[in-house]
Amino acid sequence: MADPRFFTNKGPFTLAQLAAISGAEIKKGDGDLSLSDVAALDQAQAGHVSFLDNIKYKDQFAATKAGACFISPDMAELAPEGCALLITPQPYKAYALAAQAFYPEELPAQNIHPAAHIADSAKIGEGCRIEAGAVIGENVEIGDHCRIGANAVVTHALVGSHVHIYPGACIGQQGFGFAIDPAGHVAVPQLGRVIIEDGVQIGANTTIDRGAGPDTIIGAGTWIDNLVQIAHNVKIGRGCILAAQVGISGSTVLEDFVAMGGQAGVAGHLTIGSGARIAAQSGITRDVPAGAEYMGYPAVPIKQYLRQVVTLAKLTDQKKPLEKNA
Q1: What share of the chain is helix, strand, coil (3-state, %, to 5)?
Q2: pLDDT tens for each residue of 227-267
Q3: Contact 253/247 with Cβ under 8 angstroms?
Q4: What's the CATH number for 129-177+186-304?
Q5: What is the mean pLDDT of residues 211-225?
Q6: For a pLDDT cut of 70, what percent of the chain falls above it?
Q7: Homologous superfamily of domain range 13-102
Q8: Would residue 232 show up in a list of annotated catalytic residues for this protein?
Q9: Which terminus, N or C, of the chain has the lesser number of Cβ atoms within 10 Å?
């Protein structure tokens, strides 16, 4: 359960209210049933609402004491007696909307701390929250309803609205561009910007380099996890998902709705097509077609990778150790 020292519960809500909030349909249960909180299946009690989105947890669902549960139509028959059902094709999304209602983000009062250093010419957007130690560089533009986390640094950037930059993120620093010379490498001035479109989330300690000439661009609605590195001139489309420790080399393009698992890496000057999915720890060394699923290093289509794994396992099984002569 959420610790009340850190999170404020705005419940209770009735089953009917939760259905309206989430877009789910009540299949079983009284619409006036009062629910006080959200909880995991194995921790929920009668006053809680939970969800099942993965058949792996069907046994927990069958044994849950939750008063209500978001569930897909094809899993409804697994429900225990006494559990009200909220039917939806997207149980996890519905649960997320319900949890947001119970625990909405609380913004602090609009004020400026006496220790803050703000230039006289600076203009702060409506509904923005800039946390302790954050640095906003000269001429940076930030839209409305943005949140800049503690100790984040933003320079050479144009930021849209409803963007959340988490603590420690560094946006707009010098890209890794240089001319190699035995007498001493020569830095190439990085003269581009970082363009962050609306609704982007940028995780803690993530770094996004500004462009060398062309801009580095992060498309609307893209969510970036912690500890991600995005190099200069990279262009990321709309709605992409990058998990922790992903690395994207310079001038690579990710088209819309690309998803990359943790620690995946992409070489420079490549194109990852729309809707492509890259498995965790994969190394991308060539272009990936739209909608493809790649895995391994060097990454190949996932079915090909699995065939390679099976073939290798068969080959190693055939090699038995030689018996020593008596």
Answers
A1: 15, 25, 60
A2: 999 999 999 999 999 999 999 999 999 999 999 999 999 99
A3: no
A4: 2.160.10.10
A5: 97
A6: 97
A7: MurE/MurF, N-terminal domain (3.40.1390.10)
A8: yes
A9: C
